Amino acid sequence: MSAVKVFVPADALALAVGAERVADAVRAEAARRGLDVQLIRNGSRGLYWLEPLVEVEVGDRRLAYGPVQARDVASLFDAGLLTGGAHPRALGPTEDIEYLRSQERLTFARVGVIDPLSVADFVAHDGFAGLKRALDLDPAAIVKEVTDSGLRGRGGAAFPTGIKWKTVADTEATQKYIVCNADEGDSGTFADRMLMEGDPLLLAEGMAIAGLAVGATRGYIYLRSEYPHAERALNAAIAAATAAGYLGDDILGSGRRFHLEVRRGAGAYICGEETSLLESLEGKRGQVRYKPPLPAHKGLFGLPTVINNVLSLGAVPLILDKGAQYYSEFGRGRSRGTQPFQLAGNIKRGGLVEKAFGLTLGELIFDFGGGTASDRPVRTAQVGGPLGAYLPLAHFDTPLDYEAFAARQAMLGHGGVVVFDDTVDMAAMARFAMEFCAHESCGKCTPCRIGAVRGRELIERIVAGENVARNLATLRELCDTMISASLCALGGMAPFPVLSALEHFPDDFLRASRDAA
Amino acid sequence: MTVSEPERRQAITRALAEHADAPGALLPILHAIQDALGYVPPESIDLIAARLNLSRADVHGVVSFYHDFHTEPRARHVLRLCRAEACQAMGGAALEAALRRRLNLDADDRDRARDLMLEPAYCFGACACAPAAMLDGELHARLDVARLNELLGELEAHS
Description:
CATH topology of the largest domain in chain A: Rossmann fold
Number of strands of chain B: 5
Helix content of chain B: 40-55%
Strand content of chain A: 15-25%
CATH superfamily of the largest domain in chain B: Glutaredoxin
Structural class of chain A: alpha/beta
CATH architecture of the largest domain in chain B: 3-Layer(aba) Sandwich
Order of helices and strands of chain B: HHHHEHHEEEEH
Number of strands of chain A: 16
Helix content of chain A: 40-55%
Distance between the termini of chain B: 14 Å
Largest sheet of chain A: 5 strands, mixed
CATH architecture of the largest domain in chain A: 3-Layer(aba) Sandwich
CATH superfamily of the largest domain in chain A: NADH-ubiquinone oxidoreductase 51kDa subunit
Strand content of chain B: 5-15%
CATH class of the largest domain in chain B: Alpha Beta
Largest sheet of chain B: 5 strands, mixed
Oligomer: heterodimer
Number of helices of chain A: 23
């Protein structure tokens, strides 16, 4: 009998809750019992409340057990883990778990399924099919496919990817670049990390396709330093793909070139802003550039540059493989395709939910997430990272699409949703938004650099009950100045969590003044 | 941890030899030095500036801009506790308060007896299992006071 495949994720968050000790225990227990086990270190399925999630392949199915701790492993083997035996931790076939079954996993189809560093496994699961098709197409036809798919930038700004590519394709230059923005700094987001750890070859494929489309021969992945596991996975994947001929000087014998390199950031949130990212890649302080010129015209080292988020580039291979129409059939309104949403914070079933645009925020939080982890009532959710608005329960009927969120002075951003229960102090969260902006401001423009500090001070005075009416008016005026006059989204959007907290939860700001009255 | 002068010199020379010719070399050079020594010693500035044909101010400006780069030796143990929203939603602030009660932190947030420093961090992408912290480069999630005490106990047992 051949070895039985057992999967224990090497995803950073699975490891943070004990997956390495589980993997060690599986190895030791199999050896002790003389059982032939092939241990595969996959990415995470994104069902994080069940991590560490152990899977075993029985016949043509994968059966799940979780959450498993190292101390459970002996009893799992006693129960017949390798034949899918019954156990209190048994969850049945992985694909039948409701949370996973009701998703539409396009970009994340392979994450948690394959061995992330195996080119053979990647190819066996349709990997590089998009790249192969792209090699047969004219550059203009590749751009058209991406444009027709309706794909919009998944980093948060939602700019049509095809139009960005066309601008670079139409700009003449001796050298062009593809830059992947992997500086996923927003609290509540982890989709980029999961993808880079669980299916790094997909990102390499997407970037190579972008290179073919616009005539760029060199790519950089600018990765935040907080993601060391992703750095190792990407470097190993790039080396493997290059050795197998999918990257390098002669992609699959086509004579086309694409070289890819990972560059590590250095703990600056602002470098998620595209122009400061480019400055940082050039070896400078990560300060925002004035636009224009657009990066598409003058980007990295002053040359035409496509700069896209991990999830945008990760959506591209499937669009090329299955066609624009297939992808654009998912979604709603002008938000086409799927978005990997991330459920985080005080949530019972936190994890990754890839769905077509259009389900409501409430469905995501309650049907998928199961409400709060604390079992207390949900009070609010912040959507789209630290610069996103706090939405009250009354707005949980908002469909998850770019325009519907914009209509409620909110934004979808990178698809992160952080849930809070009724113990949250919204004045403290508003204060934190300004404090974070002050901490991370690049310092180039005054509204952000000074405004964030003054904003924090004003909120502190309001909370302390000092001149409340006057300070509230000043705070609103300051927010207006920051929104209108900041150079980039950090100063320009930090007021959104503040203003939404003020609008929907005013009582939290007025406790001191009310107590004094 | 202090590092001897020849060791420092060697690490800087090696980082320059390995990365100086790459486009946009400064961050890779600084990372290589810090990976080797745990910090970027002041004499790096002159050597890097000379090699990359930059002013010392340019190099200093970059070192000081990024939160990751440190110009002094670090404590033996570094505990980076996430302060971002998802961790706050799961009691991150209370966890930090409990930690501060347990450790003997000075004004620089250092516990000299444990040779440990406490630092704020803003998101490790562990937001589905908050709160999270990184201790000596290793990520830990679903933290509570008991688990943090356990981790600190392991440090003490090994020191």
